[in-house]
Amino acid sequence: MTHGEIALTGNPNSGKTSLFNKLTGGNQHVGNWPGVTVEKKTGTLLNTSQTVQDLPGIYSLSPYSPEEIVTRNYLFSEQAKTIINIIDATNLERSLYLTLQLIELGKPIILAINMIDLLADQHLVLDLHTLSTRLNIPVCGISAKRNKGLAQLEKQLLKQPNERPFLEYDQRLETALSEISSIIKHKAAPDKQRLYAIKLFEKEPEIIDRLSLSTSERQEIEEIIDITEQIFNLEHYEIIIQARYQLVDELVKQVLIKTDSKHVAFQ
Ligand code: GDP
Ligand code: K
Ligand code: MG
Description:
Helix Hairpins; two-stranded antiparallel ribbon; 10 helices; binds potassium ion
């Protein structure tokens, strides 16, 4: 796909290591419990010179545990050029919250929906095409364990991604984010402005330091956040969380379809 590394990321137990082994021909330990991968592991995409990193599982990009910090720092770094977000098809709602945060990073990303073999038993069908259209990123249905959909995923990886992913939240939040973006436009590259605006809205100390904002810039941003909190009648961090969950809710309702019979979940 590109120079730079492919980051394999997702919730604990979503099948990251299973997929990593298939993509790299590796033999890392797979286990049905969280936290097996406590350090990132490196491999090479078969038949290429492309590096793939198997990362510790995370639920959010606002990390608490040491493993989450490893993953988050790597994903924010320039080393991580492309992201494969692997999610568990039977845990769509919980998984997509992280997906939205990963899209916020503004890097090329492929969504690999794993464990698709388990959907039929639950009388569920996933509309992958609509999900891809709504998220504006490539979506592949796979089963890492049963070797399904992997050729398609590999094909997608070799394509040159041309667009930066971008998702719109609640318009009242978007207004605040674009005002913050314009305050930092001389301090951050265009492809980082929206991400940093979100992180500033979340009041992440690391980003505030990284941009070395002046006192007046900090004050202006603080005012934008205050006004937005009044509009929503919520705290700043709640506004972002709510915006993501609203979108996740909408998506799940639209793409997860209950069926009467056991359909073949994908061809
Ligand atoms: P990780 O924690 O994200 O690295 O996940 P693992 O690769 O260790 O897998 C977690 C568990 O899910 C293991 O028991 C795997 O065998 C199982 N698993 C992985 N992929 C699939 C799949 O496509 N279908 C099913 N049914 N199970 C899977
Ligand atoms: K595991
Ligand atoms: Mg693992």
